[in-house]
């Protein structure tokens, strides 16, 4: 799904940025407790995403709902016509014509719904990027960039990536942010469990 791709992209970009290491010094420095800070930042972004979702819902209802209602009425009339054409002794040509009209009405409504979803997603992403331009980004909550020691990774590029990721998270909605939070939390728990099992295994081996 799109959100799964977004999660993978976030993880890949974080790994790539964290791997940048200039001669003699590291351009990227992780902050203390980056996972906890990232989860806290995601919680704040989730609140922002809820506000964006509700705002878009109002605008979409005002803008798109009248045409959607008209399409619903068209489908309802086509359904009535199709049901009437199914009676005993009905003309096969009339039955086929009613079925075709119903199909076209349903297709038109489905296309309109898809257009509304795409418009809401694009609008949410655009608003998310605008919000991210004036608020701390998700990467800034986890790491810091030393621009002087990273000539190949300009500060502008770093903040652009941060803004795009943060905007995409907001545009993806509160459900998407919850999925990202769960993914990071699960990864953290699994990593910590693996470290604990390794430590316990090492202790047992040393005892033998």
The count of strands amounts to 4
- Low-pLDDT sequence parts: 20-25
Tally of DSSP helical segments: 5
Radius of gyration, in Å, reads 26 Å
Beta-strand percent range: under 5%
Distance between the termini: 49 Å
The SSE order reads HEEEHHEHH
Spatially, the strands of the biggest sheet line up as 1-2
Could you state the oligomeric state of the chains shown? single chain
Provide an overview of this structure.
The strands form two sheets. A two-stranded antiparallel ribbon has the order 1-2. Strands 3-4 form a two-stranded antiparallel ribbon. The radius of gyration is 26 Å and the shape is elongated. By secondary structure, the protein is mostly helical. Mean pLDDT is 77; it is low at 20-25. It starts with a helix and ends with a helix. The chain has helices spanning 2-18, 34-85, 92-133, 155-171, 173-207; strands spanning 21-22, 25-26, 28-30, 143-145. The chain has five helices and four strands, in the order H-E-E-E-H-H-E-H-H. 78% of the residues lie in helices and 5% in strands. Helix 2 packs antiparallel against helix 3 (92-133) and helix 2 packs across helix 5.
């Amino acid at each position: 799904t799109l959100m799964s791709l977004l999660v993978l992209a976030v993880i890949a970009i974080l790994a790539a940025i964290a791997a940048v290491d200039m001669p003699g010094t590291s351009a990227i420095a992780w902050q203390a407790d980056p996972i906890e800070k990232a989860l806290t930042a995601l919680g704040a972004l989730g609140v922002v995403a809820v506000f964006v979702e509700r705002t878009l819902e109002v605008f979409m209802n005002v803008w798109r709902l009248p045409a959607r209602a008209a399409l619903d009425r068209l489908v309802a009339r086509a359904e009535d016509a199709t049901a009437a054409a199914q009676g005993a002794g009905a003309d096969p040509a009339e039955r086929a014509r009613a079925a075709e009209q119903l199909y076209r009405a349903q297709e038109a409504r489905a296309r309109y719904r898809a257009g509304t979803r795409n418009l809401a997603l694009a609008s949410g992403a655009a608003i998310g990027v605008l919000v991210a331009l004036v608020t701390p980004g998700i990467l800034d909550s986890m790491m810091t960039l030393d621009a002087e020691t990273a000539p190949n990774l300009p500060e502008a590029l770093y903040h652009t990536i941060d803004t795009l990721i943060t905007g995409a998270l907001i545009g993806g909605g509160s459900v998407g942010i919850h999925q990202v939070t769960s993914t990071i939390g699960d990864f953290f728990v699994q990593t910590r469990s693996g470290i604990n099992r390794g430590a316990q295994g090492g202790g047992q081996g040393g005892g033998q």
